[in-house]
């Protein structure tokens, strides 16, 4: 079972070097960085890492900006049996590949996601991570921070990510649950707490709840994106 990692980027020069180094060490079959028009050193970093590690299956692709669009471009270019979508500020556990392959040994399972914790070890960050993991396990819905993975054949039957500017991860996992069992791995990814720190944890929690509520009652993601400033 081969696994392709797809990393969408936009001005990620701060987070990307460590994420690339960690991901390339985990023996995935390929790592595809899909850049959406960065104006910083993001593309230069990928080129430099690729030159320094010639045996690594690392590729740099370009796309119009938009996380859903970028991930679809990466999925189309990838060759793996499984597609793993990874944010540029998220680090996978050391056993990520083995955990994914092991989880998908059951042929009826269509995909899954990891539990998460934040890179800031504080009481509030641990509480927020616990709430995210609990909510995801209860609802079956995952966010992009949880490193969603899916069988390529299933992803293609689903038509990939919807072309929406927000909630593409929620939309995908909601549809994925209709395709078959989805695995909630207890292995943890480590993701950045920067958005929560930049906007304030309480304000961010309230904003996320509000956006998801509006999405569930039918407000267009295009309208919702006007109220959401993505901190990258």
Your description of this structure?
Strand 2, helix 2 (42-52) and strand 3 (58-62) form a beta-alpha-beta unit. The chain has ten helices and eight strands. With 232 residues, it is of the alpha/beta class. The chain has helices spanning 16-24, 42-52, 67-77, 96-103, 123-139, 152-158, 168-179, 194-199, 201-216, 221-224; strands at residues 3-9, 30-35, 58-62, 82-85, 90-91, 111-118, 149-151, 182-191. The mean pLDDT is 90. The longest helix has 17 residues, at 123-139. It has an eight-stranded mixed sheet, sandwiched between helices.
Overall geometry comes to globular
Q: What can be said about the biggest beta sheet?
A: 8 strands, mixed
Instruction: Round the Cα radius of gyration to an integer and report it.
Output: 17 Å
Name the assembly state.
single chain
Q: How would you state the average pLDDT, rounded?
A: 90
Structural class: alpha/beta
Strand content: 15-25%
Report how far apart the termini are. 32 Å
State the helicity in percent bands.
40-55%
Q: Which regions are unreliable across 5 or more consecutive residues at pLDDT < 50?
A: none
DSSP, total strands: 8
Helical stretch count?
A: 10
Reading the helices and strands in chain order gives EHEHEHEEHEHEHHEHHH
- With strands numbered from the N-terminus, the spatial order across the biggest sheet is 3-2-1-4-7-6-8-5
């Amino acid at each position: 079972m081969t696994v392709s990692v797809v990393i969408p980027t936009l001005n990620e020069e701060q987070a990307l070097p460590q994420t690339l180094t960690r991901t390339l060490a985990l023996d995935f079959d390929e790592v595809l960085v899909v850049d959406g028009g960065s104006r910083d050193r993001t593309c230069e970093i990928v080129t430099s890492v690729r030159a320094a590690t010639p045996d690594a299956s690392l590729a740099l692709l370009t796309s119009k900006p938009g996380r859903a669009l970028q991930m679809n471009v990466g999925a189309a270019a990838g060759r793996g049996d499984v597609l793993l979508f990874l944010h540029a500020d998220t680090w996978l556990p050391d056993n990520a590949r083995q955990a994914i392959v092991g989880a998908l040994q059951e042929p009826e399972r269509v995909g899954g996601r990891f539990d998460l914790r934040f890179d800031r070890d504080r009481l509030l960050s641990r509480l927020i991570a616990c709430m995210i993991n609990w909510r995801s396990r209860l609802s079956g819905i995952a966010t992009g921070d949880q490193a969603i993975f899916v069988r390529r054949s299933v992803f293609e039957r689903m038509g990939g990510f919807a072309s929406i500017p927000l909630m593409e991860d929620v939309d995908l996992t909601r549809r994925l649950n209709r395709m078959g069992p989805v695995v909630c791995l207890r292995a943890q990814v480590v993701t950045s707490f920067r958005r929560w720190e930049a906007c304030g944890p309480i304000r961010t929690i309230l904003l996320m709840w509000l956006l998801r509520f509006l999405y569930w009652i039918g407000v267009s993601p295009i309208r919702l994106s006007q109220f959401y400033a993505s901190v990258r």
